[in-house]
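#lab-general

N.A. 3:47 PM
ok so I finally got the sequence cleaned up, no stray characters, all 269 residues accounted for. can someone with queue access submit it? mine expired

B.Y. 3:52 PM
send it over

N.A. 3:53 PM
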Amino acid sequence: MIFSRRAFLASLTAFILYSGIPQETKAASTVQTIRVGIISGPEEELALTAKEVAKTKNIDIQLVNFDDYNIPNEALVGKDIDANAFQTVPFMDAQIQARNYKLAVLGKTWAEPLGFYSHKIKSIRDLPDQAKIAIPNDPSNQGRALNLLVKANLIQLRQNAPALPRLGDVISNPHHFQLIDLDAAQLSRALDDVTMAAVNTNFVIPAGINPKSALLREDIKDSPYDNILVVRKGDENRPEMKLLLESFQSDAVKKAMEDKFHGAILPAW
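B.Y. 4:20 PM
back already:
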C-alpha cells in the first residue's frame, strides 16, 4: 500500500487508539519494531528480504511505502517512521539545506544508476534538434540528469556551476532541446510524450523498461549516488539501528539483487 503523509498519520493514529494488544504483552516482548520508509517498486522487494533477515535479529521491520521523494524525510523528522531507505547523500544534503532537517547516514544500501530512456529513438545519435527531454524536478536527480547531458556534449553549463546543477545553470543548448522538469515518479509515464526522459532505476523496472536499453546511463564506479539508510540525527548509534543496517547489508539482500534485477541494482557496501 502507498501512503501519502496524511493517510499515513491517520492510519497510525487509528492503530494507536484501537490496537487490542495488551500493554503487558508489548512490554514482555524482546522484539524491537523499526518503521522504515521506502519508495514502492524494486527497493520494496529488497527491503522485504532485509525484513526477513531482521527477524533473526529480533527486529521487526515495518515497511511504510511512499510514492513521493519529498515525503519520507518529512515523515522521519516528524517521527512517523524511524528510518528510510530511498535516497542518496546529495539528495539528503539538498533537503537538509532547504529544510534544516536533522538527519544522519546509517550506511549504504544499493546503487541504482539514473539513465535516459526513449520510446521514440534507439540511439543518442538519433536525437533530433528541438527534442523534448524530460528530467526530474528535484535538485539532486535534476543535477544528475543535466550532468549526463553535459557528459554527452549535448549542453553546456555556466562556469563554476554546482556539482548538482539546475536548469538555470545551462548556458549553451545548441540543438534547442526543450528541457522539461517533472516529478521523478511521472517520468516513465511521460515517455510517449517526450523524445527521451531521465528515469531512476526504481521507476524503470516497475514500468517494464529494460535498464540496458538506456541511451545514456551513469557509471556507478566511484559514484556519489549510492542509496543510503537514513535515521534521525542521534539515532545512528542505537544498537537496534546497527542490526537494521546489518539486515540491509546482508548476503540475502545481495543475492536478491542478483536474482531479481540481474545487475540493474548493485550492492553499494
